[in-house]
């Protein structure tokens, strides 16, 4: 049963009865992840390496981008990615990010 609080106002000489409801808060487990869009992936590759791949000097290998040591755990599909293969390692990928990386010839690797 909820307790009732009676408040008497001196100025209007009226009685106000207020019902106090209990506050119930349910906290579910929330997982916070640092996310990065696919459009920002190439900014994490060192500049010398990036220039070599963009200019076409290196075509035999693909850069490997491990996002966990960089502080990111999820890749989102927002933006565009250049048509240059890249290997991306992360805990989570959105469907759109996975599709865009694979269309560019890259590889998606899930890391625990």
UniProtKB/TrEMBL annotation:
<feature type="domain" description="Large ribosomal subunit protein uL15/eL18">
    <location>
        <begin position="36"/>
        <end position="109"/>
    </location>
</feature>
<dbReference type="GO" id="GO:0003735">
    <property type="term" value="F:structural constituent of ribosome"/>
</dbReference>
<dbReference type="InterPro" id="IPR021131">
    <property type="entry name" value="Ribosomal_uL15/eL18"/>
</dbReference>
<keyword id="KW-0687">Ribonucleoprotein</keyword>
<protein>
    <submittedName>
        <fullName>Large subunit ribosomal protein L27Ae</fullName>
    </submittedName>
</protein>
<dbReference type="InterPro" id="IPR001196">
    <property type="entry name" value="Ribosomal_uL15_CS"/>
</dbReference>
<dbReference type="Pfam" id="PF00828">
    <property type="entry name" value="Ribosomal_L27A"/>
</dbReference>
<dbReference type="GO" id="GO:0006412">
    <property type="term" value="P:translation"/>
</dbReference>
<keyword id="KW-0689">Ribosomal protein</keyword>
<comment type="similarity">
    <text>Belongs to the universal ribosomal protein uL15 family.</text>
</comment>
<dbReference type="GO" id="GO:0022625">
    <property type="term" value="C:cytosolic large ribosomal subunit"/>
</dbReference>
<dbReference type="InterPro" id="IPR036227">
    <property type="entry name" value="Ribosomal_uL15/eL18_sf"/>
</dbReference>
